[in-house]
Design goal:
The complex is a heterodimer of chains A (about 325) and B (about 270). With about 325 residues, chain A is α/β, with parallel strands linked by helices. Chain A is about 35% helix and about 30% strand. Chain A has helices spanning about 25, 60-65, 90-95, 110-120, 125-140, 155-170, 185-205, 215-220, 240-245, 285-295, 310-320, and strands spanning about 5-15, 30-45, 50-55, 75-80, 95-100, 175-180, 205-210, 225-230, 230-235, 250-255, 270-275, 275-285, 300-305. In chain A, a hairpin with a 2-residue loop joins strand 8 (about 225-230) and strand 9 (about 230-235). Chain A starts with a strand and ends in an 8-residue tail after the last helix. Chain B has about 270 residues and is an all-alpha fold. In chain B, helix 3 (about 65-95) runs antiparallel to helix 11 and helix 7 (about 150-175) packs parallel to helix 12. The longest helix of chain B is centred in the first third of the chain and has 35 residues, at about 65-95. Classes of the chains: A alpha/beta (about 325), B mainly alpha (about 270). The interface of A and B includes residues 93 and 109 of A. Chain B: This is ABC-2 family transporter protein. Chain B: InterPro entries: ABC-2_transporter-like. Chain B: Keywords: Membrane, Transmembrane, Transmembrane helix.
Chain lengths: ~325, ~270
């Protein structure tokens, strides 16, 4: 598939006023330059679902805002379907959708139906297509009963569903999502993730997700781009990342009583011993051999097989960056 | 060109409908503003009565002409209220809250949209019509000496004045892009219009130049009335009003482009 987004050496600096004194600040304001994004390059293929990950202030939202043309970069180039986003050409804006978990794009005082009617007009959506898409989206997200309620009277989860409908009613080619599940309960999060995955697969929408929630990333995206301190720290397939980290598995064995022959398993490392519980670290291919030998030779109460959770993998990347070369 | 005009008219219509829906969502709240504006008009009319009990003319205006000026002052106030102040205030708030992000990401002319986002037509007409009718009844129309050409030019000057005044106040709102707030600056720009009840003829020399060109507060009501009542030469006034309006429109456009370049968008 062709590239839909191409980003080359993208940087963004913000000027922050440091002298906030009421009198001296007027004559000598003093500024500090903060590098929010540093020399980031990447491409996104059509139909891909990519997650930007990073700690607070890492530069992921700034990158999304530059991709959508909201803010100007200090240096570098961006092309989104051959358009430069900050030119804000109508044809470009017609093809993107933006959802921000902390901001509302729908009028608080209007109902969902009234807001969607407005969206229909500005995107020139044909009446029959509008009705069909709206009905389909409302059914998928189960919000039919809320369509005629004022937006401000909806719960956060219901509002976010409405925001999602508003952002994809015009069938955009790229959907940018900035923390779409922030503050939502588990059920709402799950519904939204399932919905996003479904529209991405069925409608071939390219998804660009920014989130702190690893479950969002795991359930919705195929590829992850980790940004830390403004720089790219990792960019590859999410499964590949998990596999790289999970070359080793952790086997937690609950013995009836601690055996003396622990050194008999030379191919496994002992990570931790706690009373009668021993945690071994072993190559993925040797897991069954270890379990079988341990069980045959000892009296075992229980066994846990532990993989490294994505959250810990990402945390490890944060700790290691910006030494990108030393990463997995 | 026709497509652009059609798009903008359609946006205008949609905004007016949405504004109406928002206003009618809070029914009882609406009547408080009518009470407030009526009280202001009554106070103003009482003030005129007291002044003209002691003098025959004020800045060359007889009592009847002064009430006519108040009528235009009120028309100016309601026109401004229908689209100008509300929209600039909500624009400032949308930059501060980052809601502007969701406007800029839509395929609409963003400057046009923030300028005409809220068109409180029904509400303001409901507030304005009773007061305007009240003032109109107090005017002795037989003693207003004018002609159709003067009235037409006066109306055109009124529109130019509204455009200039809007752009002037909008420029005061733009620092929100740079410093994160411009509410007080916007209030300051409003205070500069407190010249509204003094006739154009009350301003002379540099003062008149300043309040027509740099702070364009005298164009909408005072200049229009002066032309309609035959106190000023219509064509030079029309030319001045038009030049000021076009200059301020250009300044607004430049200010907007520069400001967007500096938009950092509120954090999420």
């Amino acid at each position: 598939m062709s590239n839909i987004i191409e980003v080359n050496n993208l940087s963004k600096q913000f000027k922050i006023r440091t002298n906030k004194n009421l009198i001296t600040g007027m004559f000598d304001p003093k500024y500090q330059l903060v590098e929010a994004v540093k020399d980031v390059s990447f491409e996104v293929r059509e139909g891909e679902s990519l997650a930007f990950l990073g700690p607070n202030g890492a530069g992921k939202t700034t990158t999304t805002k530059m991709l959508t043309g909201l803010i100007y970069p200090t240096a570098g180039n961006i092309k989104v379907f051959e358009y430069t986003p900050f030119d804000r050409k109508k044809d470009f804006l017609m093809q993107i959708g933006l959802v921000m978990g902390n901001k509302t794009g729908l009028s608080w005082d209007l109902t969902g139906a009234q807001s969607f009617d407005f969206i229909k007009k500005i995107y020139h959506i044909e009446d029959s297509k509008y009705k069909a898409t709206l009905s389909n989206l409302c059914e998928l997200l189960d919000v039919n009963k809320h369509l005629n309620k004022q937006i401000r009277k909806l719960s956060l989860g219901e509002r976010m569903k409405m925001e999602l409908i508003g952002a994809i009613l015009h069938s955009p080619k790229v959907l940018f999502l900035d923390e779409p599940t922030i503050g939502l309960d588990i059920t709402s999060k799950k519904n939204i993730r399932t919905f996003l995955r479904e529209i991405q697969r069925n409608s071939n929408i390219t998804l660009i997700l920014t989130s702190h929630d690893m479950d969002d990333v795991e359930k919705v995206c195929d590829r992850v781009l980790v940004i830390n301190k403004g720089a790219k720290a990792y960019d590859d397939d999410i499964q590949k990342l998990v596999d790289q980290y999970n070359k080793k598995k952790f086997i937690k064995v609950y013995f009836e009583s601690l055996p003396d022959n622990l050194n008999a398993y030379s191919y496994a490392e002992i990570e931790k011993t706690e009373l009668d519980v021993v945690t071994f670290a072993v190559e993925k291919s040797l897991v069954s051999r270890l379990i079988s030998e341990v069980v045959n030779k000892n009296s075992v109460l229980d066994i846990d097989i532990i993989s490294v959770p994505l959250e810990e993998i990402i945390e490890d990347i944060f700790k290691r960056s910006p030494n990108v070369s030393s990463l997995v | 060109m026709i497509t652009i005009l059609k798009d903008r008219l359609s946006l205008l219509k949609t905004n007016a409908i949405n504004s109406y829906r928002v206003q009618t969502a809070y029914f009882f709240e609406n009547w408080a503003s009518l009470a407030s504006t009526t009280f202001y008009v009554l106070t103003m009319l009482l003030f005129i009565k007291i002044v003209y009990a002691n003098v025959n003319t004020f800045a060359g205006y007889k009592e009847n002409e002064m009430i006519f000026l108040i009528l235009f002052g009120q028309l100016n106030f309601y026109t401004d209220w229908i689209w100008n102040s509300n929209n600039i205030l909500s624009f400032i708030e949308s930059v501060r809250s980052g809601e502007l992000d969701l406007i800029l990401s839509k395929p609409i002319p963003s400057l046009f949209f923030v300028t005409f986002r809220d068109i409180s037509l029904i509400n303001r007409l409901k507030d304005g019509i009773p007061n305007i009718l009240l003032i109109s009844f107090l005017i002795d129309w037989k003693n207003i000496y004018t002609s159709w050409d003067k009235v037409l030019i006066g109306i055109f000057i009124f529109i130019c004045g509204q455009v200039s005044w809007h752009c002037f106040r909008f420029l005061f709102a733009l620092p929100v892009f740079f410093i994160g707030q411009s509410g007080q600056l916007f209030q300051l720009s409003g205070t500069l219009a407190e010249t509204n009840d003094i006739p154009l003829e009350g301003f002379t020399g540099a003062l008149r130049t300043v309040f027509i060109s740099i702070i364009p507060s005298l164009i909408t009501a005072q200049m229009s009335v002066s032309v309609i009542l035959g106190k000023s030469n219509p064509l030079p006034m029309l030319l001045i009003a038009l030049t000021v309006a076009v200059s301020f429109l250009i300044l607004k456009q430049i200010g907007w482009i520069i400001s967007l370049r500096h938009y950092s968008s509120a954090s999420s």
